[in-house]
Amino acid sequence: MKLVHTAKHPTEAHLIKGMLEAEGIRSIVRGDQLYGAYGELPILPTVWILDDTLAAHADRLVIEFLRGSAAQRYRHERWTCPRCGEMLEGQFTDCWKCGTPRARPS
Question: Fewer CB atoms < 10 Å away: N or C end of the chain?
């Protein structure tokens, strides 16, 4: 396992974990359960990848994510959820309303 990011809060850690997994990189979040003790303990949530050989790729993805590159890259690619009909921005990989994954281009 390799540490790829120390997050500011649990939400950020889980967003990054989700983004990495959407890119096929298995990951876990550690320390998110202890975040409530922040201030008393020097604990911040961390994101770890399970395959060390993907570290360089994961690092690039995290940097792009934090810079908002995905939102910029896909901002004009709106899509409609095939299950519930919700209109979504291009950076979303799943429907925020019903959870249906976006179909991958073939």
Answer: C
